[in-house]
Amino acid sequence: MNASVSLPSVLNIRPEAERAPTSGIVDVFNYGRNKPGLIPLWVGEGDLPTPSFITDAAARSLAAGETFYTYQRGIPELRQAIAGYLERLYGNPVDPERIFVTSGGMPAMQIVMRMVAGNGDDVLVPTPAWPNFMGALVTAGAQPVGVPMNIGETGWTLDFDRLEKAVTPKTRAIVLNSPSNPTGWTATHDDLRQVLHLARKHGLWIVADEIYGRFIYEPSLAVGARTPSFRDVMEPADRVIFLQTFSKNWAMTGWRLGWIEAPPALGQVIENLVQYQTSGTPVFVQRGGVAAIEGGEEFVAHQIDRARRGREIVGRLRDTGLVEMPMPPGAFYAFFKVKGGKTSAEIAVRLVDEAAVGLAPGSAFSQPSEGYLRLCYARKPEDLEEAVHRINAALPAIVAG
Amino acid sequence: MNASVSLPSVLNIRPEAERAPTSGIVDVFNYGRNKPGLIPLWVGEGDLPTPSFITDAAARSLAAGETFYTYQRGIPELRQAIAGYLERLYGNPVDPERIFVTSGGMPAMQIVMRMVAGNGDDVLVPTPAWPNFMGALVTAGAQPVGVPMNIGETGWTLDFDRLEKAVTPKTRAIVLNSPSNPTGWTATHDDLRQVLHLARKHGLWIVADEIYGRFIYEPSLAVGARTPSFRDVMEPADRVIFLQTFSKNWAMTGWRLGWIEAPPALGQVIENLVQYQTSGTPVFVQRGGVAAIEGGEEFVAHQIDRARRGREIVGRLRDTGLVEMPMPPGAFYAFFKVKGGKTSAEIAVRLVDEAAVGLAPGSAFSQPSEGYLRLCYARKPEDLEEAVHRINAALPAIVAG
Lengths: 401, 401
Description:
2 copies of one chain form a homodimer. By secondary structure, the first copy, chain A, is of the alpha/beta class. The first copy, chain A, folds into 2 domains: 9-50 and 298-395, Aspartate Aminotransferase, domain 1, CATH 3.90.1150; 64-295, Aspartate Aminotransferase, domain 2. Chain A is built from 14 helices and 15 strands. Chain A has a 7-stranded mixed beta sheet, sandwiched between helices. Chain A has a 4-stranded antiparallel beta sheet with strand order 11-12-15-14. In chain A, strand 3 (122-127), helix 6 and strand 4 (143-148) form a beta-alpha-beta unit. The model of chain A has no long low-confidence stretch (mean pLDDT 95). The interface between A and B is large, with 82 and 82 residues.
């Protein structure tokens, strides 16, 4: 898992490419993807296809011949729609000039990492963390520095002492993902202020991934219907860049549509980096994004309700007494440790074989994560109930040997 | 033109990002994009929207709910279709495991440049050249080294002495684009063998961009209905990677669909780099690609016929005696020098103002290119006739002062 690729030396490939980690999630996925009857909860996507009011908008655009090159920063209608959406959600006006459409959250991250770090630079990433942060940094030539979070009975917490001690002259940025994939950890305003203080003090960029910001279940952590955001505590001059995606809220994982929110002074740089990355996002895909924002609130509410119910169902994994799992306050993942000392990969493979359930090995998310598994509960209740039933039935034998 | 961005130092952005060149084409495009009645010949795309048999395939896929994450290497049906297409075009079987679907030709190039070069490395690029080669190299941290081609009365030629003299211990690869954007230069088999010899001798990768390989007008350079290809002269062990795109043949510029053809030993590395770049290409876009290959031959033939006719019309620019323009043997660009010593940018702006025609400034394509302009003739004859008429009428005043 997570091994870099071993190549014939004759191929003579750059270390940034050769060291790019193979996803440990994909490994297990490839192992079990064709197993009949398997309930797939390993990938970070729900089971609902994109609603038809969104796919229809894209189909209309295709039929209308919107098949040419377009604006590198995104079509004006979508940039405007996103700015309006952010204003409604966060309560303050957003300049559309801050919005840069990308072909997904991952391309947004790749561009941001290219801007903030390269060879010889360190970037701090509280862990467990989505492995793609590490992958994007490695391919940019930078060194991701995992800073382990603390785990207690009530959940995960950021360790600010450890974070500050990890800062060196080579440190260029901090990645903060709240609510977190995989742990569901959700930052308070005080957490965000402390990270901001650290970034200001050491001249660091903050890369803010708040893409699960509407999936919040713990009322004490909610600000209305969303989580605390850096935008609540930052000043305009702060070096904070936001990553966003249409994937999760609007069930558009396969569309590859997201955005960067950044200071307008970076506009030309971002435009250039889009040019040399994807050369823009298809107009017909962007029309889907406009439709999602304009007509999607009911669907998003439905998705959040479903995830809330899914979280309750998945909580029953604790009934066995064989897992350690504080209830996640946000996002839509359960991240739990199986007692008994088996590795994540062993358990994941055995759950494919013995329970026909696909989970992601926690070890893919950096330490402390060995022995953990990640389960995505953005799925219909029947599947989740059956999955929990099967896992709970299989775990005693897996823990025993 | 081509200036890097000047940013407040407080932003503290990596040099690979800050030095990424702003496209000189985009500069003029932004200057003239809203001028009424302008005939736009600056961008490398035709005037036909994607045919409906392709857009319909994508719309059906969307309606069928193919909106989830997918294979990082591309859906098997498309990889198979591409391999079959290459076999029909080039006459030899192609293993689908050599094919890696990307979100356009540019993402293909970005991944390839990431593999072959980074900080401290040089890559040779015969010039004039498409500026995105340079951009992809700069953002990878590498140094593009332009190697000027020679221009004579009969056209452009590669200077092999100059190419070999440009090789240093830091050189890692040669980019070869044939037929060339912008010059239309088309390599003979002997040219390709000489480049291959050089690459073998110095242990270099060849990045082969043969995307205009079906747009060939000079019979003495054609191999059947396509241009000579590295695949005609290489051995399986040679380090040659091909970039390809659906954009040009099938009028799919806005779709962002292309592929890499590479040794299967690089498969896992490419899969990982796709993961950290776009995380895959939408399935519904890939379904459009399958339809394009399966049903597109008549349309491609129509596109080529149109370009052939366009080339003849554009040849009349020479009637003024104010331009130097050897007829391009391939691709679909006229690349011509305007006499009188004005810069490319000056002429391009004046042609917007005085002729309402949009051309790309040649200087965007690296030297020798100052004073040149690039015109894309993949367009309906009526527009091209009118454009040539207007340019020929405007040129005397522009040349005079």
